[in-house]
């Protein structure tokens, strides 16, 4: 064994290089922050429009009102569940470890949150039996 060789040392006298994938990501907060700035207002707008939807059938009566009420109840439930899922995805984007190897997962979750709000709102609008 040579003098320069020590347990696990490459013989150069320096410490072994760390894996760059495990290095901290200094910009890990950017994608979740942009997603938060986009997702929360979208969700609030979806809730606002969903809350105003019952006024579309204020003058309805009889069978049209019954169909609207039944479809609105289902659609409202779908809207709330979808928005809660979007919130969970948004929180998950913040919770991903701040390492470079998790950057793609973090960006994917950050993109999925506002997309979930949009898909949920479209589903809500499609489920309502408009008068």
Series of H and E elements: HHH
**Helix proportion:** 55-70%
Distance between the termini: 87 Å
Number of helices: 3
Overall shape: rod-shaped
Provide mean pLDDT, rounded: 88
Structural class: mainly alpha
Rounded Rg: 25 Å
Low-confidence stretches: none
How many domains? 1
Q: What kind of sheet is the major sheet?
A: none
- Count all strands and give the number: 0
How much of the sequence lies in strands comes to: under 5%
Please, could you describe this protein's structure?
This protein is mostly helical. The model has no long low-confidence stretch (mean pLDDT 88). The protein has three helices and no strands. The protein has one domain (25-57, 65-127).
Structure keywords:
single chain, 131 residues, mainly alpha, 3 helices, 62% helix, DUF4175 domain-containing protein, transmembrane, membrane, transmembrane helix
What's a quick, concise take on this entry?
The chain is an all-alpha fold.
Write the layout of secondary structure elements.
Blueprint (H helix, E strand, L loop, with lengths): L29 H23 L10 H33 L7 H25 L4
